[in-house]
Automatic annotation (TrEMBL):
Gene Ontology molecular function terms on file: carbohydrate binding; hydrolase activity
Keywords, in A-Z order: Hydrolase
Pfam assignment, any one: Esterase
Gene3D superfamilies linked: alpha/beta hydrolase, Immunoglobulins
Protein name as catalogued: Alpha/beta hydrolase-fold protein
UniProt-listed PANTHER family: ENTEROCHELIN ESTERASE-RELATED, FERRI-BACILLIBACTIN ESTERASE BESA
Length: 388
C-alpha cells in the first residue's frame, strides 16, 4: 500500500513538473525587448519621468504602464512582443515634450523588430521638444491661418485649436470648394507645431493647384493630448478607457462644419466633404464615413488602428454605404496592421460596399510615420476628389 502511495506521489510530482515546464516554455515563447536610455540631453532634469509611446499602446504620448523604471539616473523598460515590428518614441509624458533632434526638429518614429527571445536596445536622446521654443521657424504656407485657438467642443466640454488652409486663388475668386477635415492638426501644416514631422499638406496642395487648378479647403483639428485615444475611438477599450468618438463626430457635424460652411465658400454636400486621419485618426476617419455618409462622403484612411477596436468590424459590416474610401498602409508597419486593414477591406467588399468606391494600397517601404503619410497624401486626394 505504501509503495502504491509513493508511486502516486512521484507521478503527481512528475506531472506537475512537466506542466510547469510546458507553462514556462509557453511564457518563454513571448519575446521581450528592454530599452535602456544611455545618453540624455545635458539639460535633462532627472526628476522627470520618461515614457515610451508607440503603436503597441495607441500612441498615447505617455501612459502609466509605459513609464520607464528609473534607478541611479538610469531609465529602462521591458516591452513584451505584441507585434513582429513596433514603432515608438520617448516622451516626458505628453506629445509637447517628445524626443527630437538637437535643433528641436522632429525625428522619425523609431522601429524595433522582435527577432530574438530577449534583446536589449540602448537609446540616445538628443533633445526634448518644447512648445514654447521660440527659435523654431514656422513652415506653414501663407494661405494657412488659425481659425480658432480655443474652439468649443460642448459635447466633451473641451476646447481645441482649429487651423484652415485656403486655396491660392480663394481671395481672388468667387468659387466654392470641397472641404477635407483632418485629425492630428498639429502635424498637418507646420513643422513648428508638429511632434513627429509635418505632412506638408499646404505645400502639396499649392503645387497641385498650380499644376491642375484643383482647389481644396482643409480644416485641421488639433488632437486632444491625453484624450486622443478616447476621442478617436467610438468604442470602449478595456485598457485605455471609454470611447468618445461618437461625441467627437457630433462636434464635427453639429458645431465645426456649420461654422466652417458659414465663414467660407464651401461645397457643403457629402460628395464634396471628406475626412482623413492616420493611425487612431485613421480609425476615426473610417468610423465617421461609415456612420454618417450623408455628411462625409469621402475618407482618406492612413494606417488605421483597427486593432484598438475589434467592434469596428461588426459595426462596418452592419453599415454598408456608397462613400469613397482610400486606404493606405506600409509593409514596415507590421503584419498586424496590414492584415487588419486587409480584413476590413475584404469585409466591406463582401458586405454591400461598392468595390469601385474602395481603393487599397500597400507600400513596401512604408513606415508608421508622417514622412510616409505625406508622400501618399497627393495620390489619396487625387483619387478621392479629382478622379471622379
Amino acid at each position: 500500500m505504501k509503495k502504491q502511495i509513493i508511486i502516486l506521489l512521484l507521478s503527481f510530482i512528475f506531472v506537475s513538473c512537466s506542466n510547469k515546464k510546458k507553462q514556462d516554455n509557453r511564457l518563454s515563447d513571448k519575446a521581450v525587448v528592454t530599452f535602456v536610455i544611455k545618453d540624455l540631453p545635458k539639460t535633462h532634469n532627472f526628476k522627470d519621468d520618461i515614457y515610451i509611446s508607440g503603436d503597441f499602446e495607441g500612441w498615447s504620448g505617455g501612459k502609466t504602464p509605459f513609464k520607464l523604471h528609473k534607478k541611479n539616473n538610469q531609465y529602462s523598460i521591458s516591452i513584451p512582443e505584441n507585434a513582429k515590428t513596433i514603432s515608438y518614441k520617448f516622451t516626458l509624458g505628453n506629445w509637447d515634450n517628445v524626443e527630437c533632434k538637437t535643433n528641436g526638429n522632429p525625428i522619425e518614429n523609431r522601429t524595433y523588430s522582435f527577432l530574438k527571445s530577449t534583446d536589449t536596445v540602448t537609446v540616445n536622446i538628443a533633445n526634448w521638444s518644447n512648445p514654447n521654443q521660440q527659435n523654431k521657424a514656422s513652415t506653414a504656407a501663407k494661405n494657412v491661418h488659425v481659425f480658432a485657438e480655443n474652439f468649443d467642443i460642448p459635447q466633451l466640454q473641451r476646447h481645441r485649436k482649429i487651423s484652415v488652409y485656403l486655396p491660392p486663388n480663394y481671395e481672388s475668386s468667387n468659387v466654392r470648394y470641397p472641404v477635407l477635415y483632418m485629425q492630428d492638426g498639429q502635424n498637418v501644416f507646420d513643422e513648428k507645431t508638429s511632434y513627429s514631422g509635418e505632412w506638408d499638406v499646404d505645400e502639396t496642395l499649392n503645387k497641385m493647384f498650380n499644376e491642375t487648378g484643383f482647389g481644396l479647403i482643409v480644416v485641421a483639428i488639433d488632437h486632444g493630448g491625453n484624450k486622443r485615444l478616447n476621442e478617436y475611438s467610438a468604442w470602449d477599450n478595456k485598457k485605455y478607457g471609454k470611447g468618445e468618438g461618437a461625441l467627437y463626430l457630433k462636434f464635427l457635424m453639429n458645431n465645426l462644419k456649420p461654422e466652417i460652411d458659414r465663414v467660407y465658400r464651401t461645397k457643403t454636400d457629402s460628395k464634396n466633404t471628406g475626412i482623413s486621419g492616420s493611425s487612431m485618426g485613421g480609425l476615426f476617419a473610417h468610423y465617421a464615413a461609415i456612420k454618417r455618409p450623408d455628411v462625409f462622403g469621402k475618407a482618406a484612411v492612413f494606417s488605421p488602428s483597427f486593432w484598438y477596436a475589434d467592434a469596428s468590424f461588426q459595426f462596418t459590416k452592419s453599415h454598408p454605404n456608397n462613400s469613397k474610401f482610400y486606404y493606405v498602409v506600409g509593409e514596415k508597419e507590421g503584419e498586424d496592421l496590414v492584415n487588419a486593414t486587409n480584413k476590413m477591406v475584404e469585409l466591406m467588399q463582401s458586405n454591400g460596399f461598392s468595390k469601385e468606391n474602395i481603393h487599397q494600397k500597400t507600400v513596401p517601404h512604408g513606415t508608421h510615420s508622417e514622412s510616409f503619410w505625406k508622400t501618399e497624401f497627393k495620390q489619396a486626394i487625387s483619387w478621392l476628389f479629382i478622379n471622379e
